[in-house]
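Q: What does the predicted 3D structure of Kelch repeat-containing protein look like?
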Amino acid sequence: MRLLASLATASAFAFAPPAPLAHEVGWAAGGSAPAERSEVAVAELDGKAYVVGDYNGATEILIYDLGTETWSTGAPFPYPVHHTAAIGHAGEILVFGGYVNGWKASDRLWIYSPATNSWREADRMPTARAAGGIGMLEGRIHLVGGSTSSAINIADHDAFDLATGRWESLAPIPTPRDHLAVGVIGDRLVATGGRVDGDPARNLDTTQIYDPKTDSWSEGAPMPTARSGMASAVLGTELFTFGGETRVVTFPETEAYDLPSDGWSRHAPLPTPRHGFGAVTHESRIVTLTGSPVAGGGRSDIVETFTPPAR
């Protein structure tokens, strides 16, 4: 009996699943993208990050496996697009608006299926926009702010109902802006930063919070560093913002907004300051992908991963 018990114990240890890998706090390099990109949208779906769009007109989707840190490609987007918005849901990637034909704001919604490696078009947005914010809240995808073909800010706030496939116009954001960061924390949508009428010399630090129950906005603590063109992602109760640009420089800042305390914290700076990139959350880390290290134009294949300190 003692021998059997010992064998059972040994077997349990032998077949126990490995513990999750612990990651050091701070920044680490990831697997470089197979092509350079900037002014992209990045969405997470089933453990992979999908990079869509490009300032220089590349249409092929880049797909990053967040577990193995390896890349593959998907079917090209139907046409060149940049400054678009994307989100993953129910096995698909939804891509909204963006600039097409140079700087014409689009109202089109395209849906990519990884299972079939194909695109289909869905109901168009009520408002053509580019460089807007996106978040999914209570069964709806919210599009907030952005700019028009003439680079003028819009305050429009439209929501796409995932169950019905229909659009609804909601309370406009109080401070119109483009190139803003948006994230969903609990039952609130948080919007911060951005710029006025496409001008990175007019960056904002404004934080505003949307409550879907009352269809209303409230003010939050301002971001410590006024920025636009950032990457952002939510981890726990915090919206992390990375990088951004002015007319002449890119930002290294990593700053996080905590909704329960209505406060900001500063973290280790981005190793490669850049703008026009995206970020996704994977387990206890945030992965930032591609973007431009120089203000204005530029592209890169950079992947850098941030692990925040435990809260």
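A (community wiki): The structure tokens above were generated from the sequence. The chain has one helix and 28 strands. Residues 147 and 153 are 4 Å apart (CA to CA).
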